[in-house]
Amino acid sequence: MKYVIIGTAGHVDHGKSAVIKALTGIETDRLKEEKLRGISIDLGFASLALNEAIVAGIVDVPGHERFLKNMLAGTGGIDLAMLVIAADEGIMPQTREHLAMLQLYGIQRGVIVINKIDKVDDEWLELVESEIREYISDTFLKDAPFCRVSALTGAGIGELKEILAGQAGEIPARDSTAPFRLWIDRVFTIKGHGVVVTGSVLTGSAQIGDSLELQPSGTVVRIRGLEWHGEKVEQICAGQRAAINLAGVETEDIARGMALSAIGRGETGSLWDIKADWQEEVASGVRVRLHLGTGEFLGRVYSFKEANNRYMRLLLEQPLTAGAGDRGIIRLYSPQTLLGGITLVAPGRNTRRLTPERAAAADVAGGKEQTAALYYRLAESRQLLTREDIQRQAGYLPNRKVNQAIDRLVAAKKILCLERAYIAAEVLNRLTNQVTTILTEYHKIQPDRNGLSKEIARQKLDLNEKSFEAYLAEWQATGALAVTDGQLALQQHAEKHGGWQQELIGKAEASLENIGLQNVDQMLLAEKISLPADKIKAAHDMLVRSGILVKLGDMYVYRKTIQYIVQLIHKHFAGKDTLTVAELRDILNTSRKFALPLMEYLDMNKYTVRVGDIRRPTSKILDLSE
Q: Is there a contact between 362 and 290 (Cβ–Cβ < 8 Å)?
């Protein structure tokens, strides 16, 4: 079975609700005030089996200009528009406004219904139809079929149903394998059941027991029950109208304009970059109303530096969860005139300039170039992105299509897979050039040091730890740089410095062999190995990093001296169970100044454990080999 959503449009009192009732037998005006005033105020819904293969959910929208917000809440997710025009009045203000909004929403198919033909003669009817044909000649309805009906007498209703069935048959079926998504248009409570929401299922499917995410709050809810036009069902799918009984949330936590979504899909933010189709000039900073899905969101639009207003930034007064490529309508905050239609590109980045990557992403947003859209989002990320990250950025594209796009990009070598995550090849090339420049400058300034600290390099590159470690492994594998003792260096510098380092260690080992318990500071080291003054600090630092010199408080002691001291302590504990600072001082024939940091070293390295003012041996010192 194929399911489609049909939405009405047209001026107030042109008979939209009456046409639906004639088609379905369902009265969509459910509110008391609607019945009293004879006009639709809020959204109404009905179901219509068009034939054995197609069932339509019909969304009836109000035509009065005061309720345009409600009209827009019902229009964004429709597959087929039914523009109703009264034969006795013809095209009226809301006819024009509704048609403009359908056009900006990107609706592609529709039917023109001329209602109330019982009120006019044939000559007048021909004039009205001619006027309509001329008016729609530059719109998506230019080739739409016309149907003359009277909701009052039933004339033409059978033909209208056939036309709707024919048009619905040509509409591509919504994808039930895509991630689930439904914009909420009604919220209410049923005694004994709890919270119920309704909406049109845009993509995917869901069944009783499934967990979904309430957006933008992120609350995870569970489906307790499902109905499709009053009929209890186990599952709902794309194209159906659904009522969903939810567990895990209260009525006051939900409102029209929120969405139910598969967990982990869509992106949330108050700042969005948009591609716009403006009906008139829009000033940067103007306050606007965004109509997207079933919601109205207040905010302001801002221009990018050095970019035309086709690409702008939308700053909302509340977070919005949406998918890349979603289309919406923007009206001026006051007066509420139509400004244009927009396509969401992605949450805004920390720059007021439109980057080339974001401009490219905007150009393909909402189009059929799905692989290109994914690539441009990857190409603006310095961090590695997992498949889950890419799927979220892809909006509600089915996982199989996301995975196919990733595989194509990997095969074309436009993106690389590192540590089961992805980065654009050109981005990694830029980072490689950047780290090379950073290290080249550092080696000029500090030629005697091993290299730059890994952590400092990571911060300079503005990378998270996972991404940095993956890139580091790639750079090492390709020979771009070397890593030694937590220091990064260009390969040539590392090889040259490695030879100098080994030579220095050899000299130090030979000259310090019998140094004993002395503080090997820079002055003593310079004397022992005869280094010039401008080299001695780097040499001393390197010997400390390599473990040749061991730091004890403010002193530096040769490593073999430390090994000798540990052996003496081992012998001490062979005959005694405790050790004091005074005993250590006497064993080493040194001063308390040396003994205290030595004792702290023994504690820190788990040779001894402190108990009050004495030390007791650990298994590490007792089991020490001679």
A: no
User: What is the C-alpha to C-alpha distance for residues 623 and 440, in angstroms, rounded to an integer?
Assistant: 48
Q: CA–CA separation, 372 vs 324, rounded Å?
A: 13
The pLDDT of residue 73 is 58
- Cβ-proximal residues to 19 (8 Å cutoff; 6+ apart), any chain: 8, 82, 84, 113, 115, 149, 151, 157, 160
Q: How many CB atoms neighbour CB 562 within 10 A?
A: 19
Peptide bond into 145 cis (omega under 30): no
224, 245 in Cβ contact below 8 A? Answer: yes
Whether the full predicted model's pTM is greater than 0.85, yes or no, is: no
> Hey, which residues does 272 pair with through a beta bridge?
314, 347
Confidence of residue 404 (pLDDT cuts 50, 70, 90): very high
DSSP 520-578: --HHHHHHHHT--HHHHHHHHHHHHHTTSEEEETTEEEEHHHHHHHHHHHHHHHHH-S-
How do strand 267-278 and strand 338-347 relate by DSSP bridges?
A: antiparallel
Contact between 249 and 223 under an 8 Å Cβ cutoff? The reply is no
Write out pLDDT tens, residues 120-176: 898 999 999 999 999 999 999 999 999 999 989 999 999 999 999 999 999 988 889
**213/216 Cα distance (integer angstroms):** 8
SS3 of residue 158 by DSSP: helix
Choose among 598, 597, 593, 545: nearest CA to 569.
598
Average pLDDT over the chain, rounded to an integer:
87
129 CB neighbour count, 10 Å cutoff: 17
Kindly state the tokens that stand for 311.
Answer: 């690409």
Tens digits of per-residue pLDDT, 172-201? 888 899 999 999 988 989 888 889 998 889
- Which of 451-459's residues contact partners 24+ apart within 8 Å by CB, and which partners? 451/482, 451/483, 451/484, 451/487, 451/488, 451/489, 451/493, 451/494, 451/497, 452/487, 452/488, 452/489, 453/486, 453/487, 453/488, 454/483, 454/486, 454/487, 454/488, 457/488
Q: In angstroms, rounded to a whole number, what is the distance separating the alpha carbons of residues 270 and 277?
A: 21
pLDDT of 31 higher than 50? no
Name, in order, each residue with C-beta under 8 angstroms of 303's C-beta and a sequence gap of 6 or more: 284, 309, 312, 313
- The answer, yes or no, to whether residue 494 has pLDDT greater than 70, is no
Q: Pick from 378, 394, 403: which is nearest to 325 by CA?
A: 394
Q: What is the sign of the dihedral through the CA atoms of 437, 439, 440 and 442?
A: positive
Q: Is the peptide bond before 617 cis (omega within 30 degrees of 0)?
A: no
What count of residues does the chain have?
Answer: 626
Strands 338-347 and 327-332: antiparallel
* 3 state DSSP class of 25: coil
Confidence of residue 592 (pLDDT cuts 50, 70, 90): confident
